[in-house]
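Hello forum,

I keep getting stuck at the same step: I have a sequence, I want structure tokens, and every attempt I make locally crashes halfway through. Rather than fight my setup again tonight, could one of you with a working pipeline run this one for me? It's a single chain of 174 residues.
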Amino acid sequence: MGISSRALRGALAAALALALAVSVSTAAAPTAHAYGRLAQYQIALSFNCNNVALCGQSLGGFWGWAEFDSDNTADAQLTGCQHFQGGGAAGAQHFSSDAQGWFIGANGDFFISNELVTYTGHTGGAPVTLFDPTPPYPSDTGIPAAPGHYSAQTLYGMQAPPGTNFEIQVVQLH
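Reply #2:
Ran it on my machine without issues. Output:
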């Protein structure tokens, strides 16, 4: 089954938005217990594109993990990296988040109420912290809450084209 460049770019944009939405928190959020006694779900994700025909000059990917806790907090550590062809700014950007306020929506996805995200990256400047940088809230992360392994086929209804890959692993602990 073929896929258009426009459809894949839309899927990549959705994947990036999804990954950003996973990084969740509020300004008053208590510290999450990274894989500690309150952890209910562990999530790992990986979105990659190394196909110039489909991704244009923005090659690279987005990777990370998140944890959703029984006390309604969450923690996420995410990194995106671009490798522009032909020069230009590129490099890694790290997103660090603690969260409060998550739920499983009627569609079975994780939703977040709001977020506080600290960005640290290749620019050499000081870290930047933003509250609710990707509205609207509550926000559907697009990550299924059902335990399992999700690929491009299960996420987007198609096999990932050559040079691309989309994976999410959801583990329920308790």
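The chain has a mean pLDDT of 79. If your local run keeps crashing, start a new thread with the error log.
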